[in-house]
Amino acid sequence: MTDRRRLPMNARVAAAHLENAPEDLEKVTGTAARIGVPVADLLRAPDGARDRQLVYGEPVTVFEDRGGWSFLQAAKDGYAGYVPSASLTAPFEATHWVSAPATHAYSADDFKSPETHALSHGSRVQVLGGTGRFLQTNLGFIPACHLAPLGVHPGDPAAVADLFLGTPYLWGGNSRFGIDCSGLVQAALLACGTPCPGDSDMQEAELGEPAPPGDYQRGDLLFWKGHVALVRDAETLIHANAHDMAVAIEPIAAAIARIEAQGDGPVTAHKRLG
Question: Which fold has domain 157-272?
């Protein structure tokens, strides 16, 4: 694999399993960790551009910790990059994920108690106890209705995408606090248990099969150069887009015409998931 986005190798170290890595690089097996902050930018280089984001509790493999930066690879999609080392925490046994658009962890099982953390959809936590309105977790008390056990998945990616309606557009974003087009599709598919890469070009190349032209069905994916949207029904789609600077619902025909008129070209693929 030569795509640097999913290549666990930098100028000093390479993952031990990589074949044909340069001989002068240190070969490392990596150590397990989890994201320990609500949202961490996954950067192309230390202090560099954001490629993607990781949310609390996501598992990662760390290959280098140097100068306050950790070079790592995300378990969810294989994306490699840098995060501040301080944003990581030791591995823990996650039992539940945040299935609501967002939630808070509270200091007690009382919604009037001080909140301790704000968490995005997709965050992973360890439930320690509780059977009432709140579950006690490693971060505090979280409303039980906002959590689902790991391995329990909704069946409708479009319904998951709807949870993000109004979320601000953020290039490279992967959370309820800010998200981009491919981040929205990835969040929707991963929530439903469907593996999904991080960027729209990867998604176009790797997801689904070509669908009949004009036959739009709920859950289909529409691709443009550098953009992706999720079909809600025969007439509408949902996407995170810079036109609205938010996640929005738009008529399919209007979106196709608008995107082409603004110079971003025609639809490049219409894919249907199995």
Answer: endopeptidase fold (from Nostoc punctiforme) (3.90.1720)
